């Protein structure tokens, strides 16, 4: 059974708790940046002379929205590997 996207994996050690916190911070920053880009871009669409800039803000905002699920999947793989490493180290000490 997979350990991806499971609360126990995120809270299993001090290291996984730190990793989880760092990824959550990065995810929040990316989320906030995307929201600001879309908000400012939306306002800039009110004037013809700023529509080009508004379009680019939407493109970058969309890019940030694409980064969000990538961060989550990367976090889960990172946490899974961190857990596997500790399990392997424990198994070696038993031999």
Would you count the extended β strands for me?
0
Q: Helical segment tally?
A: 3
Strand and helix order = HHH
- Provide the helix percentage: over 70%
Compute the CA-based radius of gyration.
Answer: 20 Å
Summed over residues and divided by their number, the pLDDT gives a mean of: 84
Separation, N- and C-terminal Cα atoms: 25 Å
What does the largest sheet look like? Answer: none
Enumerate the spans where pLDDT stays under 50 for 5 or more consecutive residues.
none
Instruction: Report strand %.
Output: under 5%
Shape: rod-shaped
What structural category characterises the helix and strand content?
mainly alpha
Keywords: Membrane, Transmembrane, Transmembrane helix
Organism: Roseivivax sediminis
Pfam families: YrhK
InterPro entries: YrhK_domain (IPR025424)
Overview of the molecule:
- The chain is mainly α and 95 residues long.
- It is built from three helices and no strands.
- α2 (14-44) runs antiparallel to α3.
- The chain is rod-shaped, with a radius of gyration of 20 Å.
- It starts with 6 loop residues before the first helix and ends with a helix.
Summed up, what is this model?
This protein is mainly alpha-helical and 95 residues long.
């Amino acid at each position: 059974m997979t350990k991806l996207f499971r609360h126990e994996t995120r809270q299993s050690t001090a290291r996984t708790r730190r990793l989880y916190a760092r990824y959550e911070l990065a995810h929040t920053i990316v989320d906030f940046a995307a929201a600001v880009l879309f908000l400012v871009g939306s306002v800039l669409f009110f004037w013809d002379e700023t529509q080009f800039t508004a379009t680019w803000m939407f493109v970058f905002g969309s890019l940030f929205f694409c980064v969000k699920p990538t961060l989550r999947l990367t976090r889960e793989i990172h946490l899974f590997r961190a857990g596997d490493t500790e399990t392997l180290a424990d198994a070696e000490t038993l031999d």
